[in-house]
Amino acid sequence: MTTIETPAPQPSGTLSPGSRLFTLASRYGTFVAFLALIVFNVAVTPNFLSWQTLNVNLTQVATIVIVATGMTLVIATGGIDLSVGSLMAIAGALAPMIFMGQFWQVENMAFAVALAFLLPVVVAGLFGLFNGLLVTRFSIQPIIATLVLFIAGRGIAQVMTNGNLQVFRNEGFQFIAMGRIAGIPAQVVLMTVIVALTFAMIRYTVIGRQIIAVGGNEKAARLTGVPVKRVKLFVYMISGALAGLAGLVVVARNSASDANLVGLGMELDAIAAVAVGGTLLTGGRANIIGTVLGAFVIQLVRYTLLANGVPDAAALIVKAGLIVLAVFIQQRADKS
Amino acid sequence: QVPKLEQKDTYKVGFAQTESNNPWRIAQTNSMKAEAEKLGYQLVYTDAAGSAAKQVADVNSMIAQGVDVIFLAPREEKPLIPAVMAAKKAGIPVILLDRSVDPSLAKAGEDYLTFIGSNFVEEGRRIAEWLVKNANGKSKIIELEGTTGSSPANDRKKGFDEAIQAAGGFEIVASQTGDFARDKGRQVAEALLQAHPDADIIYAHNDEMAMGAIAALEAAGKVPGKDVLVLSIDGGKEAVQAVVDGKIAAVVECNPRFGPKAFETMLRYAKGETIEPMIINDDKFYDASNAAAELADAY
Amino acid sequence: MLLSMQGVSKAFAGVAALKSASLEVEPAEVMALVGQNGAGKSTLIKILTGVYRRDEGSIAFDGREVDFSMPAEAQGAGIATIYQEINLAPQRSVAENIYLSREPKRFGLIDHAAMRRGAEAVLKTFNLSIDVDRPVAHFDAATRQMVAIARAVTQKARLVIMDEPTSSLDEREVAVLFETIRTLKRAGVAVIFIGHRLDELYAICDRVTIMRDGQTVAKSPMADMPKMALVRHMLGKELAAFQAIAPDEDAPERPVRLAVENAGAGVRVRDVSLDVREGEISGLAGLLGSGRTETARLIFGADKMQRGTIRMDGRARTYREPADAIADGIGLVSEDRKIDGIVPDMSIRENMTLALLPRLKKAGIVDRARQDEIVTRYIRALGVKCASPDQPIRELSGGNQQKVLLARWLATDPRVLIIDEPTRGIDIGAKSEILKLLRSLADEGLSVLMISSELEELLAAADRVTVLSDGTSVATLPRKDLSEAALLSAMAHQVE
Amino acid sequence: MHTLLRPFAIKSSGDIARLGVLLALFGLILFGALRYDNFLSSYNILSFLRYNSMFALIALGMAFVIITGGIDLSVGGTAAMASVVAALLSPWHWAAGLLGGMAAGCAVGALNGFIITKMRIQPFIATLATMLAAYGTGLLIANNQSVSVSYDSGFTVIGQDDFLGFPIPAWIALAAYILGWLVLEKLPVGRHVLAIGDGEATAGLMGLKVERTLAAVYLASGTLAGLAGVILASQFGAGQPTEGVGWELFAIASVVVGGTLLTGGSGSVGATLAGALLLAMVFNILNFENGLGWISLSAYWQSVIRGAFLLVVVVLQAKLMARHRSA
Ligand SMILES: Nc1ncnc2c1ncn2[C@@H]1O[C@H](COP(=O)(O)OP(=O)(O)OP(=O)(O)O)[C@@H](O)[C@H]1O
Ligand SMILES: Nc1ncnc2c1ncn2[C@@H]1O[C@H](COP(=O)(O)OP(=O)(O)OP(=O)(O)O)[C@@H](O)[C@H]1O
Ligand SMILES: [Mg+2]
Ligand SMILES: [Mg+2]
């Protein structure tokens, strides 16, 4: 998909229908890559066309999409957030501690579960706010500012749990990952809602437009009265909170929280999804639908390689090639 | 020859851990710390965070700090040789825990004192042997490997695959890495079960991935233990409980509680005893027949 | 013939920027290249130097067919270029910028001392004595422009191209530049000179090539082309006379809207006092580096004010952020549109309404219908040449970008509009339009603070002019006392 | 100002940050020397230098990349792959191992340059992909396990022996840094690297060969990573396909702590070295602190402390720079 905020100028009727079709096809570069992957799988991968396959892929991609949505906003302002994986671990560690009564005696389970949803997301959001403060108040470069929590954040989660695995069973809490709403897995519904809200925010709201302006030219944005610092704080906070939410989904899905591993390497997956989706890492753009497609492409590549028994080492190489290719197609599409 | 160890009231000992990102390692570290505390020794603990190179640097900093003994849980066989040699040169005896170093380059009783631990190849072989006897006609195996390139992953695969091949009649339909992690293990199992719906055995290189695989099976509407046999290695409490519940068919223990045996060996050496070159933990084996009884003792 | 470009065409995303344009330059002549904003002048230059690839056409330089694929090649072939948006490496020192890509060397290593000496020497010929070790970013637009010129003229090129080199220079600098051009000419170097100020063109150029809508419409010796004819070729129609903008001389004193009292910050702005009255255009004059831009930024809250007071309608105000000033009805069209103005990837629509956004919302959501209405209105009112409002602003020509930025502030319906070099890079047709527009807005009650290096412009439009010298306001001249001589003597006040 | 003093003149906020990192480094050394026995023992110093020279090399390449406004995430994977290549070639001749490893790094660097300049893909994504590819290739040719080097061909001398009482890897790193300093400060190409970081488009308009310079910078970064891989293989006696995880972040942090902005256009070779040593020193201090036995730090606290330390350093630096700017 092309970027949302700047639809390219309409070619002024001088193009032949054929070349217009081509322009159209190549403009949706990531989508084409996505379709190609589907076609390939239908032909090659055993049992690809089934509801269960769709189910598996959608539930697996949900966390990447949720995190990558927040990442898209941060990247749109010209920043980056390396701390998302660690924040997932913190939120993931916190939630079970709440409803398993490690902080205080649980008297009302429903209340405890509600708190287990709310508190970790709020805490992750606050950590995100901390990232934002480093970036805005101290003018520390985003990679380094978020590297602090990338290193320390997981340590905090591990210290909280003493590194121990927390195993639990709690239907209420695990609804977020195991439940179904109208037959659709809850985490897929959650993902859809988040994507839709963010899409609308970018496209239609003032804050959304301001996010893009900050990334496009920060000085100019400030001189037109955009509250640059507040906008940045906002996006880092959202990114943190969404990472926290994704962390909850992961631990709920596994019936276990392992501070050592929850969200490990998520920052790279999320950033790759954003880039494959056509949002420039230099800021000034936010293509949410592209990000979703990018995440789908990455998930499908992973699934394809797994299902076809490609050994890990070779899979890494293939994955690398496909990322480069997808971004390449996407960029060509953007130019035409 | 291995450097001598004086007999003293208290010691400053070094423990160079390779990483602490899984429950097994954490149990091992805790056991070492607890034992050192019990004996009143000063423990210099380092964590190499999964890097063999850093582990060598860690050992060097222990040498610089003048420890009496070094317990080393080498991340890998070959890259840790320089650490062993440096300690020898500095006159500090080294005891290897849970993984060994390349025998062609360093020898027990010469370059380091001894190796205490399990044999990963053997673990894979034991679980395979159980399977050969108890397969009940099941034959299509999905293997969830540990972290690519790590020695337990390589060895547990080697032992299992060789034994299965030798027995005949089994087929490994897919073998992919799950990084020793529950979440990754689950995701990989989900994908593989889709591509190979006829698979009826899952062999996971550790408990965490086995638990992930069980979640994947349940999500796919299959009954672990009935439709699909799940096999695992490590034998932590959660896994043994799963054996009791019938979800895991069998698990080989790989006990992380090294503390008592490690310090006991060290003291024996200080007293002047000759130490055998290899001390193999007697690891338990859990299946439906003994799991309930042994549950309380599982780590 | 030194350069011959024939039948050059270029389209961007299907929109033609050049349609079979041509340009011929002889050795040792100064060729004026003129045309309205968006006529295709810069594009033609960029095609010549290999920034863009042409769709059609041929280029011969020095008798040989050439096809440069990047500026480095054109430079190697003997073409030095000063592009319209000043192109220097901001964090590198002045000396390094002048010698970048042809550093003086000793034993294979850069000879920093020689470089410094060389840079100081060439800048001295421009009457500029600055610390050549300081990064270029520390200097204002005019100084940077001079550095870019110094860089180009020291390249020992056969052809020097200057795309609007004087747009940020004051008259003294312009005089120095012209002297340099004459020296180049004497050395047999040809110059292509792009500019919108007709007097300058007549003063320095030998011949003129006129472009309109991507085509070359006229070529002639400068002397044979009367001003009126030139303008007619450029616009394709007669120009409504460039006067009658000036206000009535004995209009009654109107109440002060914005008062700046003894403002100061750092060393750049020492002590500035000025008034901007309701319905008046107030001018701010001064030499290069006298602190006009900095004063504007202080008033607007873009920089922190350390001393002094600002009063709006008599009440003392503190603006910590531009947003505060904007909320009070102040707007600032900044001097450097590339750095402080446009958001390059955003569309014209978005750029135009950026400052207005908070007021365009209903429950946080942008009111698209109102946005469209405003955008269409201003595109038409200012004659912005674009394919559609959804076009990214970076694709517009320099002058058209400036119009969009002006519209950005007009759309906020400000009570005070500060405008730093309002007509920089704007063609003569649009220029008088803009000045007229400002006048009529003032008549409706808007207060304008106009910073300009063009005395002619100030004389034509301002009701009063405050003169800055070395960060201090040294005089305020009312309309009746305004004259070029008066301004110049006030500006020279402390310098001499 | 006297010309001799010119190099020490504080002209930009970057200089201030560079001064800051040196002060922090000395502060930390002083802290260690006062608090721990044997901290300044030659054994500790030499093994510290031997080990950290690998990171110093990588940080040097990263500094150049970051000065152009780019980033190279592939260095860790490249070093791992190069170590495998070097180990596999070491039985032939020590030089085969050395050159082979460097060539492997060079190849990844060339690939990075190609993807970035010809396919115009952003460095972050391009090098993220080549990082994956380098790890994959390393694992493939190593058959998923560490590869022993030859102990007979003299290959291990590179990493394990000393020359004039100093570890050879430290000499190599020192030489690389001197060369790097020369290139950046004294050769035109260094100025071009800086100018490109200031603005690629502008640099192109000023007649610089942007693509070629960028490609050269990534090539250099890859080659230095390859060299680090050779040292890795030689020092530890094995090519290690799974080593190198997180090295890129260490290198980036070193460069930034050394006062270089990720936005490009400025940077210093010397300060990068100081930055790398500073961050490495934190690990060393943590190991010694554990040895004191006052507080037994778990691995978790260590990462919290490392993060906090990074925070303190960059916040202090930011404050210094802000003060300088307003002064
Ligand atoms: N990169 C680009 N992409 C799309 N359109 C462009 C691009 N560059 C220029 N154009 C279009 O080409 C036309 C000619 O622009 P050009 O910059 O050459 O004008 P100009 O004569 O230099 O005007 P000015 O006097 O305002 O600088 C304009 O309509 C402009 O919008
Ligand atoms: N020729 C020069 N020599 C030394 N410094 C200069 C020169 N020109 C500008 N500067 C620097 O710029 C500062 C003032 O810049 P400022 O942009 O405020 O002035 P200005 O009057 O708006 O100039 P302009 O004519 O470019 O708009 C001076 O204090 C000085 O540091
Ligand atoms: Mg132009
Ligand atoms: Mg100015």
From TrEMBL, chain A:
Keyword Membrane: yes
Subcellular location(s) per record: Cell membrane
Membrane topology: Multi-pass membrane protein
Pfam families attached to this UniProt entry: BPD_transp_2
Keywords: Cell membrane, Membrane, Transmembrane, Transmembrane helix
Residues passing through the membrane, by range: 28-49, 61-80, 87-104, 110-130, 142-161, 181-202, 233-253, 259-281, 288-307, 313-329
Protein name, UniProt field: Sugar ABC transporter permease
Organism, as annotated: Shinella yambaruensis
From TrEMBL, chain C:
GO MF annotation, one: ATP binding
Stretches assigned to the ABC transporter domain: 3-238, 253-495
Keyword Transport: yes
CDD domains, per database record: ABC_Carb_Monos_I, ABC_Carb_Monos_II
Alphabetized UniProt keyword annotations: ATP-binding, Membrane, Nucleotide-binding, Repeat, Sugar transport, Transport
Signal peptide bounds: none
PROSITE patterns per the UniProt record, alphabetical: ABC_TRANSPORTER_1 (PS00211), ABC_TRANSPORTER_2 (PS50893)
PANTHER family: CARBOHYDRATE TRANSPORT ATP-BINDING PROTEIN MG119-RELATED (PTHR43790), GALACTOFURANOSE TRANSPORTER ATP-BINDING PROTEIN YTFR (PTHR43790:SF9)
Family named by the database record: Belongs to the ABC transporter superfamily.
Protein name as annotated: Sugar ABC transporter ATP-binding protein
UniProtKB/TrEMBL annotation, chain D:
UniProt-listed Pfam families: BPD_transp_2
Topology of the protein relative to the lipid bilayer: Multi-pass membrane protein
Main localization (coarse): membrane
Localization per record: Cell membrane
Transmembrane segments: 16-34, 55-88, 94-117, 124-143, 163-184, 215-238, 244-262, 269-288, 300-322
Transmembrane among keywords: yes
Protein name: Sugar ABC transporter permease
Organism expressing this protein natively: Shinella yambaruensis
